Amino acid sequence: MTDETTSAVAAAARIPAGATAATVPGSGSAVVGADAATTGAVNTGGGATAAQRQAPGSAELIPADRVTVRMPADGAYLSVLRTATAGLAARLDFTLDDIEDLRIAVDEACAMLLSQAIPGSSLECGFALEHDAMTISVSVPCLNPRTPSGDTFAWTVLAALAGSVEAQAGPGDRLAIVMRKARPGSGSA
Description:
The chain is an alpha+beta fold. It has helices at 3-12, 36-39, 78-91, 96-114, 153-162; strands at residues 20-24, 29-33, 52-54, 61-63, 65-72, 122-129, 133-141, 164-170, 174-182. The chain has a 7-stranded mixed beta sheet. Strands 3-4 form a two-stranded antiparallel sheet. The relative contact order is 0.14.
């Protein structure tokens, strides 16, 4: 991901005053967040759930492009995530309907998580961009994380909008919702 792309994502997302965007040279990664510059927080693109894609004409797997947005865990900032989601989905040539579905899915996932977030904490949204799919992971720190019930109307709507969805209570008392949506006709799961 180039500096121009990162700047375009930050501009499209209308990052609030004081927020920063930074790239990791040569890694295809970007970090956008209010504390990226002050804390030195950088997403290097690694991780246990790293999405990968196959290089054209090769059996070699290469890491997907990654973008991480970190902001206050407050509903007032959700428009930033909706805009970033739409911009990144458009970059992958998703249809307008799929882009709108992903915007709503991210909003719904955040609503489920914000009710459990520790006041004053940060919400983190990671995007893994593959050739024909996008994986979105939204997480917040919680005092006593409880995964959302899969039999609620909200979860049913989320699953219908995002494709595959799972909730995870992970290390450090972080609660996450991970969504994966493939571009129509791509054959990807």
